[in-house]
Amino acid sequence: MAIVRSFGVFQSTERRAALVPTVSAAPAFGMTYGLGQQYALIYASQPNVRTCVDFLARNIAQVGYHVFRRVSDTDRVRLADHQLSDWLEHPNPYTSRYRLFESYVADLALYFNAYWLKVREPDRIGLVRVPPPSMTVEGGLLPETFIYHGNTQTPFAPSEVVYANGYNPLNPIFGLSPIETLRRVLAEEAAAGEHRERYWRNASRMEGIIERPKDAPRWTPEQKQKWREQWQQRYTGPASVGAVPVLEDGMTFKEISYSMKDSDYLNARKLTREECAAAWHIPLPMVGILDHATFSNIKEQHKQLYQDCLGPWLEMLAQAIELQLLPDCQDTAGIYTEFNIADKMKGSFEEQADSLRQAVDGPIMTANEARSRLNLPRLDDPRADRLNEPRGGPSVEVRPGAAGAAVPSIVRAHWARQRSRLERLPVDERAEALNHQRCTSELAADLSRHLGRGEAWTYAARVTDETYTLLLEGRQAFGADREPRPVEYSYDQAA
Fold first, then answer.
1. Is the pTM of this model over 0.85?
2. Mean pLDDT value across residues 178-189
């Protein structure tokens, strides 16, 4: 499809004959630098290259891309209806946001160059992917002109293209594909694949020679030729599969080819995938190399994936879009963009809620600061800008009424049960014998008749923490002089 523009305004498109490359089982892998037209053929024929490129493209394309306005250091507002968000969500009538980013990242991973053409319409900007082999760049230290090679050569100013390129020490305006670095490894893989294909095409025939005893009568040239023809007619080709050769007296067959085991074929294939994964900085378990994978380190590898592997890619793409597409928007004051990587990094709902509760309950951050970490709008309640008291410190306020009055008696009854169980043990063993989970659950269940479920659990956990601390220090945890802590209430309950 050739794009036709006039005075910077999208006019029409012209249909071009489809270019269908002929992909051989083993394309040429010469060591010549810069044969970019081969990259698509290498991607189509090399499974390890395709695995790595598709892994990056799919995982980045499915991460949400959001637009925010920074109000202050602790407040930001997501702009779902911003122009930039609309352009990226609906790039053109035939491309979704996912496909737009998938093709962009795939081009960048394969060619280390990626291009979107801006199609300017009266009230918006459309985005169309331009294949890197069809685009050349002119300039010195900075790009001056982008030339699209369609039916005719069409030049574009840098302001009309959203582009990204990787580092290339030889050419600052054109990226250096990782495939150039992997050429020798891929060439070895292609040669091994070609050898294996010939092996199976010849009906898995072993290569070797037939030896005759040294004292056997000497053959004339006619006898040698006749023997060779008979052997080839009977024991070569697909029709010979399963046939057992019968040699004359004294003849032996000596194998001269390397077996798959001797050639270390499987390890060589694994090495190729490892080299490809390393070139794109992908953790090995993510591309199917599970030799040393366990449940625990897979969880850590998932963190590494979004921090060390995809993190630099996401930052590069976000900055390229902000630099080259955001200036075309009408509203740019305080605008920034961000991939929603937090949604991929967060744990379960319980883990996230507990970590935020600890942060808000302790003197670490205010409620509004915690909400800003999740890109949520701030609360107007002035108490949301104050630090709460730390755990174990002074209480906010005692809950009045019947519920608050019933709590001390419930706690004292709970302590009595603990005392009867633990006082039979030596003092230095009581803290270890305290079942923290069981004690918290039992007390929370008793308190839930008078308090809310969440408040009862929080209160019970704090009481159990204090009991454990006293036992650990060897102090009296169940004495008559110990008073149950007052019940605190949250903002919602106070309202």
1. no
2. 83
